[in-house]
């Protein structure tokens, strides 16, 4: 993961730095719980295990937390629903976005890159989006001038502009795209330009992070649509590690539009950049469930469990990789 100063995003350190370690405990515990369901083919059981463990551990943290991006609406799920209060109820008022098991299918199939992700921000810092909303996303590294790509341009225009900015032929550009029927035309268009397309079956938080970490991954750009919650979580990570992203919500039904209005979204066609998706002081933690390109998965040893976590802080732009051994 490449570190580059995120320009213009320096905000006061309103979230105490010791909260980072608290978040590590939360994602570690959820990942350990989900790991029991790796390769068992039961997505719901894996997700439920992660949710329960995450909620239980979050409730030990001295915060007045509020879930703003969660598992769903209050009537749809028992825990980590939008609006649910979490934490001890003492301490700072914070907003929390979670994907307790990002890539449930990957976990159920024991395939790479299933992770537990949580972001914490000052109250009001995170764009509030419902679980069922999708987002068009585009992401590139921090090293390019602002405005190099644009979500409203065609894929062809974007990869041409990127190749020019990078000073390489199109054949040396790699785009990462979620492998979905809805992306068939996008993939065809990209291949037509001569760029390489890396298809992922799930997990586009990792996909966006890979796209901004070109030196490590060889991936230059993320394109396509995925979950809006994952878009906000990815943006929170980019606040800490650098990288450019634009997102546009896909509010394609009257119900989604009405819910978005309730959640404070007045312009359905707005293009959000990183600091508009995740503003102010932000902390992000992610723990690997299955071995992946971002993080190692949970390792079960005879008397212990090993976890691999990354925790980031926007104020200092520190990124820590924490390997932990837990007795069992
Ligand atoms: C997207 C993507 C996620 O699920 O939400 C995807 O952002 C769902 O897309 O990373 P489909 O409904 O087309 O399957 C993930 O891949 C995993 O949550
Ligand atoms: Mg989920
Ligand atoms: Mg997800």
Strand and helix map with partners:
Elements: H1 19-35, H2 43-58, E1 64-69, E2 85-86, E3 93-102, H3 104-108, E4 115-122, E5 134-140, H4 155-166, E6 174-178, H5 184-193, E7 196-200, H6 204-212, H7 214-217, E8 221-227, H8 228-241, E9 244-250, H9 254-262, E10 271-273, H10 274-277, E11 282-288, E12 299-300, E13 304-313, E14 318-327
Parallel strand pairs: 1-3, 6-7, 6-8
Antiparallel strand pairs: 1-2, 3-4, 4-11, 5-8, 5-9, 9-10, 11-13, 12-13, 13-14
Helix pairs in contact: 1-2, 4-5, 6-8
The structure holds 7-O-phosphono-alpha-L-galacto-hept-2-ulopyranose and magnesium ion (MG) (2 copies).
Q: Can you put this structure into words, describing what you see?
A:
Its cofactor is Mn(2+). Belongs to the FBPase class 2 family. This is Fructose-1,6-bisphosphatase. InterPro entries: FBPase_class-2/SBPase (IPR004464). It is globular and about 50 Å long. The model has no long low-confidence stretch (mean pLDDT 95). The protein starts with 18 loop residues before the first helix and ends with a strand. It has 328 residues and is an alpha+beta fold. It contains ten helices and 14 strands. 7-O-phosphono-alpha-L-galacto-hept-2-ulopyranose binds at residues 102-103, 180, 202-204, 226-227, 230.
């Amino acid at each position: 993961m490449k570190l580059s100063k995120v320009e213009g995003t320096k905000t006061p350190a309103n979230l105490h730095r010791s909260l980072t370690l608290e978040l590590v405990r939360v994602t570690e515990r959820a990942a350990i719980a989900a790991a029991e369901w790796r390769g068992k083919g039961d997505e719901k059981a894996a997700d439920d295990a992660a949710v329960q463990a995450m909620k239980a551990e979050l409730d030990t943290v001295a915060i007045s937390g509020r879930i703003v991006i969660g598992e769903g609406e209050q009537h749809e799920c028992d825990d980590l629903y939008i609006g649910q209060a979490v934490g001890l109820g003492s301490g700072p008022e914070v907003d929390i976005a979670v994907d307790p098991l990002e890539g449930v299918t990957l976990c159920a199939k024991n395939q790479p890159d299933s992770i537990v992700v949580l972001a914490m921000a000052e109250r009001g810092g995170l764009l509030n989006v419902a679980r069922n909303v999708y987002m068009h996303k585009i992401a590139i590294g921090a090293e390019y001038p602002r405005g190099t790509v644009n979500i409203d341009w065609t894929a062809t225009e974007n990869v041409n502009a990127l190749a020019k900015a990078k000073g390489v032929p199109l054949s040396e550009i790699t785009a990462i795209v979620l492998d979905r029927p809805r992306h068939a035309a996008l993939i065809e268009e990209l291949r037509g330009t001569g760029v390489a397309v890396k298809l992922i079956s799930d997990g586009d938080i990792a996909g966006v992070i890979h796209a901004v970490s070109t030196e490590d991954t060889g991936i230059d750009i993320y394109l396509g649509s995925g979950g809006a919650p994952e878009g906000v979580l990815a943006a929170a990570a980019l606040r800490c590690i650098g990288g450019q992203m634009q997102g546009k919500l896909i509010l394609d039904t009257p119900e989604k539009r009405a819910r978005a209005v309730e959640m404070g979204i007045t312009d359905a066609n707005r293009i959000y950049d990183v600091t508009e998706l995740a503003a102010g002081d932000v902390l992000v933690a992610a723990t690997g469930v299955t071995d992946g390109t971002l993080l190692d998965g949970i390792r079960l040893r005879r008397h212990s469990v090993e976890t691999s976590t990354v925790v980031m802080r926007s104020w200092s732009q520190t990124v820590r990789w924490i390997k932990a051994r837990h007795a069992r």
